[in-house]
Amino acid sequence: MTSTAAHSRSFGRRPGVAALALAAATALLAGCSSSDDTSDPLAEKTAEGGTVVVGSNNFAESILLADIYGEALKAKGIKVEYKPNIGSRETTYGLLKNGSITVLPEYNGSLLAYLDPKAEQKTAEAVNAAAKTKLDPKLTLLESAPAEDKDSVSINAETAKKYSLTASSTLADLKDIAPELVIGGSPEFQTRQQGLVGLEAEYGLKFKSFKALDAGGPLTQAALTKNTVQAADIFTTDPTITKEKFVVLQDPKNLFGFANVTPLVYKSGLSQEGVAALNEVSAKLDTKSLLEMDSQVQLENEDPLDVARAWLKSVGLS
User: Fold this and answer.
1) Contact assessment for residue 118 and residue 2, using Cβ atoms and an 8 Å cutoff
2) Which of 54, 133, 179, 288 has the most beta carbons within 10 angstroms of its beta carbon?
């Protein structure tokens, strides 16, 4: 299927998170976190010889992932410089191509949709292979993590309890009860294949009604919390899932495509030791862990660098 609804974290993220990211980045640049660099992150200059420049896009999760990558590289004795909170993919991709950034946290399906909007996404492996053929020849993708941050149909705790649905339940389990549920999401969700159209075609789901809200943002979160809607399009690492005990329904047919966290690198700027270190991170990072860390940063206001270091230590990579 085509990832026409490539998740919005690629181009600006859901409302509210950009502000959190800016605050986090300010803390980083103030010297209390990962980056000791106070220069312009958009400056097109190559780092000193042997230094790996780890960049991040302008949202909180990307900054956290950059800290994880950077600290994992430091643990191998590699010199790291941080360029946090740079901007959207349109900016960071260009900086990668000219070598100003060496490593950037990416999402494989969203990157492929950026490089080739018409590309099909049938498996994570196929997505990575297709993306590599579209990348600038100076760049490559490393191994993807199981961790994904993508669209999902999530239900609130009240609905989950009423219908005995758990984290192992799938979208197919909604078939008989969907006519009793109101589902919410962005206006586009109503007409997209990766939305109501696909939910009916792939899983036979016909909901009671649809409520137009926002793209996984505060309106959607509030409506699901207040039971104005019983199901909604929520991103899989949204901290609200933890806070409000939402249940994310499994998508065995991969209607929502792939959004595995994947390092995108400037090939000549990273040693084989660095490649191995980042692949080790990917092997350990799952969606549950990423959601927990996002919650610590975005709900509990913990320093992303501290959260990154604690996680690396917990999985034996520090």
Assistant:
1) yes
2) 54
Does an H or E element contain 310, and which? helix 304-314
| pLDDT range class, residue 50, cuts 50, 70, 90 | confident
Over the range 204-223, which residues count as b (16 or more CB within 10 Å of their CB) and which as e? ebebeebbebbbbbebbbbb
Cα separation, 36 vs 151, in Å, equals 34
- For 36-45, which contacts have Cβ atoms below 8 Å and span 24 or more sequence positions? 36/82, 37/81, 37/82, 37/83, 41/83, 41/84, 41/85, 41/86, 42/86, 42/87, 42/91, 42/95, 43/100, 44/95, 44/98, 44/100, 45/100
Three-point CA angle 183, 187, 192, nearest 5°: 85
- Please, which pLDDT band fits residue 204 given cuts at 50, 70 and 90? very high
Which comes out higher in pLDDT, residue 292 or 36?
292
- Cβ proximity of 88 and 58 under 8 Å: yes
Element at 81 (helix H, strand E): strand 79-83
Q: List the one residue out of 90, 103, 36, 142 whose CA is nearest residue 269.
A: 103
pLDDT of res. 241:
95
217 band by pLDDT with thresholds 50, 70 and 90: confident
CA angle 249, 202, 114 (to 5 degrees): 80
Report the distance separating Cα 14 and Cα 151, nearest Å: 11
